[in-house]
Amino acid sequence: MKTFFLAACLTGLLCQPVQASFDGDGCDFWLAPCTLPLGSYPFLWIDNDTRANLLLLESDKHQFASVYAPLAAEPGRSRELPFSIPRIAPLSGTNEYGFVITEVDIPAIKKLADQLGVDISALDLSDKMLLGGRGRMVSNTPAALAQFFQLLIDDKALTPEQRKDLAHQRVNLLVNPELADVSTAVFPEKSHAADLHNYLLSAAYFYNGNFSEATTGFQNLLKANQPWVAETATYMLFRVALNQSIEHALDEYEMFDVTKSDKNLTSLAAQKAKEYLAAYPTGRYAASTQDLYRRIHWFASDWNELAKSSEQALGRAANLEMLQTLINEVDTKLLSSDAWQSSENQFVSAPDTPMLTLTQTLRRLREGYQSRPNAILVTEAEINGYKPMFEKAGMASAWNYLHSVWLFYLPKDYAKVESSIPAATTQALTDTVDFSLQVLLGQALQAEKKWPQAEAHWRHLLTLKTTAIQQQFLQLMLTNSLAYQGKPELVFAANSPVTSLRFRSLVLKDVADASLLRQQVTSGVNNEERVIALHTLLTRDLITGNYSDYLKDRALGKDSVSLKFDKSTLGDVNITVFDWDGSNTEKGYHCASLDKTAEILAQQPKDGHALNCMGEFFRLTETRVNTEREYGLQWQLNDAPAMFKGKEQSRLTHYQQVIANANAEPEDKSYALYRAIMCYSPSGYNRCDGQEIDNSVRKSWFQQLKRDYKGSVWAEKLRYYW
C-alpha cells in the first residue's frame, strides 16, 4: 500500500529545498485547477494579470515552452478563448499548493520499524498527513518518521536498545506532538543517542511553540558528536527564529498580517541563516536556507531585498512548473501584497530587478491603480531613472517599451509613441518584448484613428513568424480594425487571414448587416459559421420587425445550413429554436407556430394576437443575439458601427403596441396588459427590455386590466403589480 504525504523542512527532520518558501502561513497561491483571469494576452499589457506579464518575460528568458493552453485542434471551428494560461501540473513531488508530497510506502515504513523492534501496526499512518501542510507542523509526517528510522539504522554508534527507544520517541512525536513525552530516557552523556534524544526533545518544544526552550536545546547541540544533529540544530536555530518572528503576527480577525511580524526576530533569523551557511556552505539545508531568505525579507517588509532575491530565484527556475510556483510567491508576497495599503510601504522598484520593475510599473499604469488615494504615480523621470538598470541587464528594448507604454497611457501622446517605435523589419517576431512593441505601435495608430495604417500594420505582422497565440491575437486586432472602419466584410474575404471562428462569430453577431449575414449563411467556410450567421440573421430579422425578410431567410437557411451541429458548443445559436410550434404558451392563450405568426405580421404588422405570440416566442425560448460565448475579449466590437438596419423591438414593445391599439381584441389586450405587468415581476425591475417605465404607468395597466377586463382569466390571475 502506498500513500502520499505532505512534507517540508521545518523541523529539520526532513528537508526538501523546494518547499523552503512555503511554510508559515499556509497556502495562498495559484492552485493547479485554476487558470489566470480570462484574456491574458500575449503581450505586456497593463491590464494583464501581473503574473501573466512576469510569466511571459521569464519564460522568454528561459526559452521555455509556451505558457498558454494549446489551441483548439481546429480554431476555424471553435470559439474557445485562445488566451488562456493554465496552471501547469504541480512539480513532481509537490501538490497544487506547492507543498512537497513524498510518496510513502507504508509497508516499507513498517519494515524499518520491524528492524528497530518497534511495533507500529496499530498506528494509522494514512491519518497522519493531516498534521502536515502548514506552519511548523509541516514536516511531522510518516515520511519524516521513515527518514528518522533510516538514520537510526545507519548510525553504527547506537545500540539496538537505543535505536528502539529513540524510534519510540519519534513515533510519540508523530502521534501527538503536544503530548509526546520524549524526556524520560537517559543516555550516556555526549553519545550519539543522547544527541538524538536531545534533538527530539528540542523538536518537541519547537512543534509545541515553546520557542525559548527549543532555542536553548538546539543551541546546546551545535557541537554535538552526532553529525546530522550538529548540522540540523544549526539550521533549526534559524527556523526557530523565523517562526518565532510571526508568532503574534495576527490581525483583529486572527488572520496573518506580515506587518505585525517581529522585526528584531527576523533580523535574528537572517543572522542564524548566515551562520548556518558559513558553517555548512554545501550542507543538506543550504539550498533551502538560500531560498528562505525571501521569507526573511518578506517578514521584515524589506521589499528591496525581497525583490532582489526573488529576481535571482526567478532566474534560476529550472522549468516552467517551478517558474509558475515562484511567480505565484512573488506576486502574493511582493507585487500584489497587502503592503499596498499604505503609500509608504509599496514596492515600486529595487536595484538590479528589471523584470520585477517592468512588471510592477505596468501594473501602476492601470487606471484603477492611478485612481487610488495612495497611488504612487509613474513619472517620466522615474522611467528615465530605470534606463541604466535595463541597459546593464541587456534589456534596452524592454526599457523602450516601458517608456512607450507610459507615453501611451499617461500623457496619451500617441504620435510620440508612433515615432518612438520603428516598424518591424525582421521576419521573426516571437520575442515577447519585440511583439509588445509592435502591438503598442498598432494601438497607437488606432488611437489616432489612422485606421488604414493600422490595418496595414496588422496585416504585415500576420505575415511574420509568430507563435500560434500571437497569431490569434493579431487576428483579433485586424478584426477590430476592420470592424471600426466599417469594413467587416473583409474579415470574410477569400484571402482573409482572420480564420478563428471566435473572432468571425463576434463580427457576425455584433456588426454584420443583413447582406453579409446572408452571404455567410450560404458561403460560410464551415457549417459552424453558417449556423452562427443564420441564427443571428433570423433573430435580427425578428427583433427589427422584418418579418418578410425572416420568411425568405428561413427558406435560405433550410437550403444552406445543416441541422447536424454540436448543440453543446453551439447552444447559444441553436437554429432549431425557430421551429417553435406555439404549443407551450401559457394555458389559456393559444399561438400558431413562429413561421405562421411571422406570416401574419408580414401582412398585418399591428395584429394584436400575432404580436403577443411573437412576444411568447421570445419569452419562452429566450432567443437573442448572445455574445457570452465570445466573452473574455478586451477588444470587443461594442463600439464599432452596427450595420444591421432597423429599430430593435422587444416583447414589451409588442405588448405596448397591443395595449395602445384601440381595435385589439379583448383577449389580446388583456393578455398584453398581463404580460406587460409581469415584465416587472417579482423584483420590480424590467426583465423584458431596457425601458424605465414609471410605477404609475404600471399601476394604470393593472387598474385597466382589473376594470376593463374584469372576470378574464388574466385579470383573475394577476393579484399584484410591481
From TrEMBL:
Superkingdom of the organism of origin: Bacteria
InterPro entries for the chain: TPR-like_helical_dom_sf
Species this chain originates from: Limnobaculum parvum
Gene3D superfamilies: Tetratricopeptide repeat domain
UniProt entry keywords in alphabetical sequence: Signal
Protein name: Outer membrane assembly lipoprotein YfiO
Signal peptide (UniProt feature, chain positions): 1-20
